[in-house]
Design goal:
Elements (H helix, E strand, L loop, with lengths): L3 H13 L3 H7 L20 E2 L11 E3 L9 H17 L2 E5 L5 H16 L2 H4 L11 E4 L14 E8 L13 H25 L6 H4 L5 E9 L9 E6 L5 E6 L5 E5 L2 E4 L7 E5 L1 H6 L9 E4 L6 E9 L6 E2 L17 E2 H10 L13
Parallel strand pairs: 1-10, 2-3
Antiparallel strand pairs: 3-11, 4-5, 5-6, 6-13, 7-12, 8-11, 8-13, 9-10, 9-12, 14-15
Helix pairs in contact: 3-6, 4-6
Length: about 350
């Protein structure tokens, strides 16, 4: 057992390099430091499902490239598929979503190029100071989590008050701005479909400010010399309404479905959508926020771009939507202040869903 003070000093030494996990590889490490050794390996009731088992295949939904705006029958069909995916899986992939493939390729390339820069060029963005609109670091919960993930992240708060263009790294500035505009449009469409699938007005979730905030996270998962000892991202749920993820072709993302870890395979041109904790809360458990993780690999880097949709109003209070409640479906959760939820999410670790803390 590693002494707590030893671990803290090792974490600080790693953090003080301002170079992240990529800096370790650049320094030629062949064995990963102890701080990355995971304490949460899968247990016997969380097996890995096979890719050839149709029961454990994440749904793929065709958004029809905008046709659903004019074709009510097509829209109803898509809406039903989204509703089913959110109730059963909390995860699905979307194709024909409207973002050009060249934009998807360029944002993956831009994020990868940011992380592959010399450490000295990235250090100006390295910070843990709250309130920064653009930041770079390794593990947002570095000092709170029981183990450290093999991952570096560039974070950009792109809505509702985006950074000035010159605040973004020059190597990916233009494409991050362009991709953010596109993904906000996809998010807007999805929130309309989600609202309708709940039997609500198409603008209901947007009127609740669910779509106003966008945090874009450009993740880099470098090749790991000892991938069986750590994770790229440990088991967690997302503190969002929805997350829209673009991943490259390396793979490693898994969702915990019926106590089995199910692969979410890369699909070129597709986006992965998952329900976040806040959407589960306001739908009173109708839609589910599924735990997921990223396996470390000895190949890489794996690059992904996660778009977190969440309210940026720290004084905003969210609770189950009144129109969804009845005698048969009583309120499950408290009214939750966003800042209280965020504080709990960041302070209590990610092993268990924070939603359990806010149940009545």
């Amino acid at each position: 057992m590693v002494d707590t003070s030893d671990r803290t000093s090792e974490l600080k030494a790693f953090d003080d390099t301002n170079a992240g996990v990529k800096g370790l590889l650049d320094a030629g490490v062949k064995t990963i430091p102890r701080i990355f050794h995971s304490r949460s390996q899968p247990n016997v009731d969380q097996r890995e499902g096979g890719d050839d088992d149709a029961r454990f295949s994440i749904p793929t939904i065709d958004l029809q490239g905008g046709k659903i705006q004019a074709d009510s029958a097509l829209r109803a069909e898509v809406m039903e598929k989204v509703r089913h995916a959110c109730e059963k899986w909390g995860f699905f992939q979307v194709v024909n979503h409207g973002i050009p493939v060249n934009v998807l390729d360029e944002v993956i390339r831009g994020i990868r190029e940011f992380h592959e820069q010399d450490s000295e060029l990235k250090k100006e963005f390295y910070t843990r100071t709250p309130g920064k609109k653009v930041y770079y670091h390794s593990n947002y919960d570095l000092y709170q989590a029981s183990s450290t993930d093999w991952r570096d992240t560039l974070g950009c708060f792109m809505a509702p008050n985006p950074p000035k263009p010159e605040e973004l790294p020059s190597v990916c500035r233009d494409i991050v701005i362009e991709y953010s505009k596109h993904v906000m449009e996809v998010g807007s469409t999805l929130f309309e479909i989600l609202s309708e699938s709940l039997g609500l007005n198409p603008n209901h979730l947007k009127d609740m400010n669910c779509a106003e905030g966008l945090l874009l996270l450009g993740h880099c998962y470098p090749a790991c010399p000892e991938p069986d000892l750590t994770f790229g991202a440990s088991k967690h749920t997302d503190g969002t309404f929805i997350t829209i993820l673009l991943q490259d072709q390396v793979g490693g993302l898994q969702a915990l479905y019926e106590n089995q870890w199910v692969n979410v395979p890369p699909m070129y041109g597709a986006l992965v959508v998952n329900v976040g904790d806040l959407l589960q809360l306001i739908t009173n458990d109708k839609f589910i926020s599924l735990a997921h993780r990223v396996r470390a690999k000895n190949v890489g880097p794996r690059t992904s771009v996660a778009s977190f949709f969440r309210s940026e109003r720290n004084t905003k209070v969210f609770g189950p939507i009144k129109e969804l409640l009845s005698e048969e479906n009583p309120q499950i959760y408290q009214e939750v202040d966003i800042k209280d939820y965020v504080r709990y999410y960041y302070s209590e670790g990610k092993e268990n869903s924070p939603l359990l803390h806010f149940k009545l």
